[in-house]
Amino acid sequence: PAGTLKRGESPLACARRELAEEIGYKARSIALIGRIFTTPGFSDEIIYVYRAIGLSCVSLRPDADEIIEKAIFTKSQLRAMLKDGRIADSKTISGLSLCGVF
Q: Torsion over CA of 74, 99, 30 and 11, rounded to 10 degrees?
């Protein structure tokens, strides 16, 4: 899940909200594991990467313009998807790296 901070919202609150909205889960705990500067020298945008632990289902609440298909993968499946190019998004690759997938 990923999203944009609402005015006055903390990155942690945003992570919790997006987890519920986009994949229908809440976490027992969420920990910041890294930050990514999207375009250093051009922008001051920061992406905060969190690890969610102890997931449990809640109702899925995507935004009206979001089309979301949930799937669960093993670490070996994710590594294969990275290697063959099915995962090419830089924030996803960075997040998986910070989580120790490869």
A: -120
Residue 6 buriedness (CB in 10 A; 0-12 / 13-18 / 19+)? exposed
- Residues lower than pLDDT 70 in the chain: none
pTM value is 0.84
Reduced to 3 DSSP states, what percent helix, strand and coil does the chain have, rounded to the nearest 5?
30, 25, 45
Asked if residue 66 lies in contact with residue 22, where contact means CB atoms within 8 angstroms, the answer is: yes
Q: Are 49 and 34 in contact (CB under 8 A)?
A: yes
Per residue in 58-87, pLDDT (tens digit) is 987 777 787 888 888 999 999 999 999 999
